[in-house]
Amino acid sequence: MTRADLTQAMQALENNPSAPEELRGLLRELQRHQLELEMQNRELQEAQQALEESRNRYMELYDFAPMACVSLDAKACIQDLNLTGAGLLGQDRTHLQGMPFTPFVDPADLGRFFAHVRQCIDGETVSTELRLRIARRRIEVRLHSAPLEDGRLPGRMCRTAIIDITELRQMQVRLSMSERLAVVGTLAAGIAHEINNPLAFLMGSLSLATHALRAPAPATVDAELLASTRHHTGATQALEALSHAQAGAERIQDIVKDLGTFARPTAPQGRTVDVEQVLELALKMATVEIRHRAHVVRDYVKVPEVVADSVRLGQVFLNLLVNAAQAIPEGTASRHEIRVRLRTSDEGVLVQVQDTGQGIAPDVLEHIFDPFFTTKRMGQGLGLGLAISHSLVAQMNGSISVESTPGGGSTFTVQLPASSAPREVPVSRASRSPALTPRRGRILIVDDERSFGVTLRLLLMDVHEADYTPRAKEALEWIREGRRYDAILCDLMMAEVTGRQFHEALREELPEQAQRIIFMTGGAYTPSSREFVEQTTRPLITKPFKREALDALLVPLLPCA
After folding, report:
1. In the chain, at which end, N or C, are there fewer CB atoms within 10 A of the end residue's CB?
2. What's residue 426's pLDDT?
3. Cis link prior to 218 (omega < 30° from 0)?
4. Residue numbers in the chain where pLDDT is lower than 50
């Protein structure tokens, strides 16, 4: 019955006096319920339409969200994903549904990915950073996952938001590099200061030697006596000056060696480091910043070695020392000090850098390790030094903290885990052989630095028969023609044929001659050369070297007296 029919029937009954009153009341009640049902039906239709519109808006937002979203089951198979996720994975959405997600995960990170999914399926909200491989392109992502109950599918789902952080990581690397460039500036100033003094001494001594050898003779002295006297006097002065020049050159060599410690690439995990040695190198490099502001007090005790990276640890110490110096005004070195403590602790090894500078206010202290937080003037830093130091120490399983009082100076404390391995006494490769005097031998020098090769040949010719070539190919031809050498001094890094390639060719054709090679290097390694150096059993000597060090390596290869 329609509403109109019901209304007409009601009117008919109301006008009929013979209809029972109950029937008329029942009809009135039916009319009221009919009207209520129509109103509820209208409200339901409106609610359903609003729900459909809301769902459409949600799906539109879900599909075109700026981050990729994917739903994974317990087997890490894709059950649903938005259009952004399909775009990130580079495939059609309908094709991806039901596929395992694992082909998109970098093989090195598969274990962490499965652990992430298991934790989410077990009911945890988890976040993990890993690498994906998509169409031969590697990207870094952060996965944010929460458990999801979906009535349409059996079991719990893992709803995951995938955030591409590749550009963020690249930006962090660039910012970190900017901060390291500031450290390099300090480092360069320290090196220039350290080198300039011995360099001036070296140049002055060479000038004195040259002057002594060229000095004109007085005209009033007997010619024969004068000749012998002048020769004796000039030679003596020249020898003394050259001896001083040698000392200056060795000092520069030590400085370059120290710099190499800071410049060396990251050491393998588990490498032990002498903390005192790294501290001393950092103090040398920070000399320019410190010397006009404070005097350094070393408060060391003997401590075990730590498991760390010497380069990163050196960067941390250099940052702390430079910050300590910059907290003290210039021209007050006699009234201020930077105290460096080295102690053992329950956690391992404790290093403290304490200054008598202006101190840090409490409201600043709580943000001291935050990235980009700085109290320095514009152009004096990005505020990343302490943040990077905090991160580097954490990567070495250590900790860093600070205590400070305004006007009372600051103390930065670094805790590092001690190594359980016994302390090793370093032994140079060039000093392992017994000190014996080699007899005359036949030696081949292969080095594409002609001036060095010629000089080395002249140095050896007083005792040995020495051949020199700047080309490894020519050296190979000489050996193939029948020449045999007691020792072959070969540079590791050469432009056309590297020392490694020369050694491999020789080992294949004439293995006995390959066992006669002593490698030389200026210290600059490519990754492949570094790997070769770590694996080879052949001796290695670093340029510049003393004649005594080379003789020690020649002893096992030449007949001995």
Report:
1. C
2. 45
3. no
4. 220-221, 225-231, 265-269, 378-382, 424-435
3-state SS class at 254: helix
**Do the beta carbons of residue 97 and residue 118 sit within 8 Å?**
no
Please give the DSSP secondary-structure letter assigned to residue 186.
Answer: H
Task: Flag whether the pTM goes above 0.70.
Answer: no
Phi-psi region of 169 (alpha: psi -120 to 50; beta: other; left: phi over 0): alpha
Q: Are 29 and 22 in contact (CB under 8 A)?
A: no
Instruction: Report pLDDT for 268.
Output: 45
The answer for residues whose C-beta is within 8 angstroms of residue 325's C-beta and 6 or more apart is 286, 289, 290, 293, 294, 338, 355
Tokens of 539: 């001796």
Q: In DSSP terms, which residues pair with 491 in a beta bridge?
A: 520
b/e map 96-106, b = 16+ CB within 10 Å = beeeebeebbe
Cα–Cα distance, 220 to 197 (Å, whole number): 40
Distance CA 111, CA 109 (A): 6
Listing DSSP states for 15-59 in one string gives: H-TTS-HHHHHHHHHHHHHHHHHHHHHHHHHHHHHHHHHHHHHHH
- Mean pLDDT, the chain, whole residue set: 79
Q: How far apart are CA 491 and CA 471, in angstroms?
A: 10
Which single residue is written with the structure tokens 């090679």? 517
A 10 A CB-CB count for 150 gives 14
Two tokens, residue 13: 């009954």
Q: How far apart are CA 61 and CA 162, in angstroms?
A: 16
Q: What is the DSSP string of 69-96?
A: EEEE-TT-BEEEE-HHHHHHHTS-HHHH
CA dist 553 and 451 (Å) reads 22
- Nearest-10 Cα torsion for 426, 428, 434, 437: -160
Pairing label, strands 348-355, 410-416: antiparallel
Distance CA 455, CA 432 (A): 25
Residue 484 backbone zone (phi > 0: left; psi -120 to 50: alpha; other: beta) = beta
Contact 495/448 with Cβ under 8 angstroms?
yes
State the pLDDT at residue 467. 94
**pLDDT attached to residue 421:** 57
Q: Which two tokens stand for residue 351?
A: 């290093």
- How far is it, in rounded angstroms, from Cα 511 to Cα 219? 65
